[in-house]
């Protein structure tokens, strides 16, 4: 499980262009963000995404509770969730649902986080595009996922 920030500041990647012509990308930097909470099963590749306007303990609690319901975590099914040490993951205010066990990665070790590999896939439909609003960006994300 991990979170990723996306926003109105464009993601600019390399692109193909006709020889001798420079490619152009509309860029209008604005700093409004949406956060994508993502869960991935490393064995199957099955993933789940939730776009939310903030990243904090109450938002993570909502996502974690919904994840537990969607995966039928409980007395008969135990799910081990690998997380980084973000403050909203480690706070005592977080109530872990029954059937979900949280395991924390060592500090500064994103290479051990399976969910990190999702972010290039999440960025792909947004690359070299300009969005007027976060709603327009979210609509593209929801179609993609």
For this entry, give a set of tags.
alpha+beta, Nucleotidyltransferase, domain 5, two-stranded parallel ribbon
Description:
This is IS630 family transposase. It holds the Pfam family DDE_3. The protein has a single domain, classed as Nucleotidyltransferase, domain 5. It is 23% helix and 21% strand. The protein has 4 helices and 5 strands. The strands form 2 sheets. The protein has a 3-stranded antiparallel sheet, with helices on both faces. Strands 4-5 form a two-stranded parallel sheet.
Describe the structure concisely for a colleague.
The protein has 145 residues and is an alpha+beta fold. The protein has four helices and five strands. The strands form two sheets. Strands 1-2-3 form a three-stranded antiparallel sheet, with helices on both faces. A two-stranded parallel ribbon has the order 4-5.
CATH homologous superfamily assignment = Ribonuclease H-like superfamily/Ribonuclease H
Distance N to C terminus: 16 Å
Bulk shape: elongated
The radius of gyration computed from the alpha-carbon positions, rounded to a whole number of angstroms, is 17 Å
What portion of residues belong to β-strands?
Answer: 15-25%
Number of strands: 5
The domain tally reads: 1
Protein name: IS630 family transposase
Domain Tc1-like transposase DDE: 1-137
């Amino acid at each position: 499980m991990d979170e990723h920030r996306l926003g109105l500041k464009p993601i600019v990647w390399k692109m193909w262009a006709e020889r001798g012509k420079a490619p152009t990308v509309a860029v209008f930097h604005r700093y409004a963000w949406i956060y994508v909470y993502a869960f991935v099963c490393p064995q199957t590749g099955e993933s789940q995404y939730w776009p939310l306007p903030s990243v904090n303990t109450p938002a993570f609690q909502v996502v974690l509770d919904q994840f537990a319901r969607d995966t039928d975590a409980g007395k008969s099914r135990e799910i081990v969730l690998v997380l980084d040490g973000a403050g909203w993951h480690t706070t005592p205010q977080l109530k872990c649902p029954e059937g979900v066990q949280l395991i924390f990665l060592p500090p500064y070790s994103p290479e051990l986080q399976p969910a990190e590999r999702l972010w290039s896939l999440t960025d792909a439909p947004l690359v070299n595009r300009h969005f007027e609003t976060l709603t327009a960006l979210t609509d593209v994300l929801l179609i993609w996922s």
